[in-house]
Amino acid sequence: MNLHEFLRKIPKAELHVHLTGTVFPKTLQKLSRKHAVKLPPHDRIEDLYDRSEFKSILPMLKIAVSVMRDPEDFALVVYETMREAAENGVRYREIFWNPTDHKDIVGLDYEMVVDSIIGGLREAEEDFGIIGRLLPSINREESSQLGLEMVQEVLNNPCDEVIGLGMDYLETGHPPEKFWKAYKTAGEGGLHLTAHAGEFGEPWNNVETALDLLKCERIDHGYTIIDNPELLKRCADEQIVFTVVPTNSYYGRTLKAETISKLHPIAQMARRGLRIVPNCDDPPLHHTDPGKAYIDMVEVFGYDLNDVRQFIINSIYGAFVDESDKKRWRIEWLKEFDSLRSKLDLPTNPQCN
Q: Which range marks the domain in which residue 104 is found?
């Protein structure tokens, strides 16, 4: 077994992926034809997934929303992405999605969408053994009132698969405190809490606000925490989990390729004591998958296999599941990791040892 095969096969949890960012090119094309939705001009469908110069992927998320219009569409998208995740060693996955997008762009109500997504999750679990859970996510570019109304709708329609609340889209100009009331309501309603913060070069204050005002248990991205050693030490001491994305667009645009391995915050975060978990975010849009996220941690950022083992521990530690599940997974997954590692054909490269 070579290193790539090993990193894809090892059991892992993924805690940071967006439903509308998982739509494969051929599926986008198929659904657009099914519903007669006009896509932006392109020669090949893959052109819409162009990552040259790390173009923003946010507009593509809206396009994906526009082609998902009936229960079968949601079930198909979920099933396909969960199959790919399972093929890359993911045993448990938490998925963000924005209910307000589907209502505003296509006119679909929350109950229909969540039931359709859950149907796809259950089918994938039956076929591939992968467990999926959902975190409705606030589009921070919208109003605080709309975010609060979305949370209230989630709480009014409880289901076992919906376990938490997230917040995404463009952080610039939309700091976390904008949605303090929505988070307070979600927490009082029993939902787990996480938020994108410190992502687009936005200040470390957003990470602190997400922790102290929004009461987040986990931080998505959080890269600018490295600019505040005191906050970084606090998060290391409190064992806050950060879900990082090796293919993050912002640093791909702002750092030179030859300096990413040293200057990217991901290269520093674990080495400075933070609990980080690699994730693929929007797999086809980032031209990645859950296995490649781990490959990048080794080949781009120079982490070794002991670090990889710790990432798996972190992925379990940060999952919004019962402690009994975490304990069982730690035993089972680490035993499997160690067994697979013993069969690994290692190159003569110290970072792979």
A: 3-343
- What is the pLDDT confidence band of residue 350, given thresholds at 50, 70 and 90? very low
Q: Into how many domains does the chain fold?
A: 1
Which of 99-113, 173-187, 257-271, 285-299 is least confident?
257-271
Residue 351 in any domain: the answer is no
pLDDT at 347 over 90: no
Q: pLDDT band for 260, please (50, 70, 90 cuts).
A: confident
- Does residue 236 lie in a domain region? yes
Instruction: Count Cβ neighbours within 10 Å for each residue of 258-268 and write b for 16 or more, e otherwise.
Output: eebeeebbbbb
Segment 21-33 mean pLDDT: 97
- Judge whether 317 lies within some domain: yes
CATH, residue 333: 3.20.20.140
Q: If we measure between CA atoms, which residue out of 224, 255, 219, 263 comes closest to residue 238?
A: 219
Q: How far apart are CA 155 and CA 184, in angstroms?
A: 12
33 belongs to a structural domain: yes
